[in-house]
Design goal:
Elements (H helix, E strand, L loop, with lengths): L15 E4 L2 E5 L12 E6 L3 E4 L6 H11 L4 E6 L10 H8 L3 E3 L24 E2 L5 E4 L2 E7 L8 E5 L4 E5 L17 H12 L5 E4 L8 H26 L4 H8 L8 H17 L3 E3 L5 E3 L1
Helix pairs in contact: 3-4, 5-6
Protein name: Beta-lactamase
Organism: Sphingobium lactosutens DS20
InterPro entries: LACTB2_WH, Metallo-B-lactamas, RibonucZ/Hydroxyglut_hydro, Sec-metab_biosynth-thioest, WH-like_DNA-bd_sf
């Protein structure tokens, strides 16, 4: 979790070529949780796919249309259904005639602190991709890689021809992902991270932050960070006995932007639920937690 919020000066609404098959358009929704904003990717050559169309914003939809440049759109793919990723899928489908493909619909009441993490209740998929299923176009193949954790319906998409992985919010280029129960699941997240370590992707294109050109090293580092946080929680519980999550956050997240404390508390809760499942922590009375 990065701090303070200081987004780079990247051009909003401008198509930037990243590789022979990949270009990027930045949406106008920067925030402490989205960094510079959601990055929509246009993949392909003579015909394209659009990944994570982003918020339903007229200027952003116009920017995506410019990036498409009149080429046929074979598919619109969403990594997951948080509101900064999927709402533009349906209007873009209407404009291009392309089907919405990818993650399953998921609507869940989220009592977490991030408004941008609320689920897109209007999302509908014309085809849900299972793990390992593909979408193909001229000269490109996108394969679904199931990566639950940030959300239970999260998918990454592997571009086979370039050994590239579009990682959505599972791995971001500027910060660790928020894991917010009840749908966010730390146990599933760590399994998904281990799966990525075992892959041979050469580059990640996250929905937020810069491309990652040494991805396995980054993922191992993120997993190590989570293990360190887990250790901090267990040591805190051992010292203080029955403890409240805000007290843990105040000690463990010193120097972090206070606007992120609510999200930090959700990640601490996700760790505690994981630790409880492993017999290392347990809920106590009045919302407190203790070492098991």
């Amino acid at each position: 979790m990065a701090s303070p919020f200081d987004p780079a000066d990247l051009p909003i609404g401008v198509s930037m070529t990243l590789s022979p098959l990949v270009s990027r358009v930045l949406a106008p929704n920067p925030s402490p949780f989205t960094y510079t904003g959601t990055q929509t990717y246009v993949v392909g050559g003579e015909a394209v796919a659009v990944i994570d169309p982003g918020p339903d914003d007229a200027d952003h939809l116009a920017a995506i249309a410019r990036a498409i440049g009149g080429r046929p759109v074979i598919a619109i793919l969403c990594t997951h259904t948080h509101r900064d990723h999927s709402p533009a899928a349906r209007p873009l489908s209407t404009a291009t005639g392309a089907p919405v493909i990818g993650c399953a619909p998921l609507t869940l009441e989220d009592d977490g602190p991030r408004a941008d993490a609320a689920f897109d209740a209007d999302y509908r998929s014309d085809r849900v991709l299972g793990d390992g299923e593909t979408v193909e176009g001229p000269g490109w193949t996108l394969e679904a890689v199931a990566t639950p954790g940030h959300t239970s319906n999260h998918l990454c998409f592997a571009l086979r021809e370039e050994q590239a992985l579009f990682t959505g919010d599972h791995v971001m280029g500027w910060s660790t992902s928020v894991i917010s129960p009840p749908d966010g699941d730390m146990t599933a997240y760590m399994r998904s991270m281990q799966r990525l370590v075992e892959r041979d992707d050469a580059i990640y294109y996250p929905a937020h932050g810069d491309p990652v050109d040494n991805p396995q090293r980054l993922v191992r580092g993120m997993m190590g960070h989570r293990k360190q946080r887990e250790g901090q929680i267990l040591r805190f519980l051992a010292r203080h006995g029955d403890s409240a999550i805000p007290d843990m956050v105040a000690e463990m997240y010193k120097g972090v932007d206070p606007r992120l404390y609510g999200a930090a508390g959700r990640s601490v809760l996700a760790h505690l639920i994981d630790l409880n499942g492993r017999g290392l922590a347990a809920p106590a009375e009045d919302g407190l937690w203790r070492a098991a």
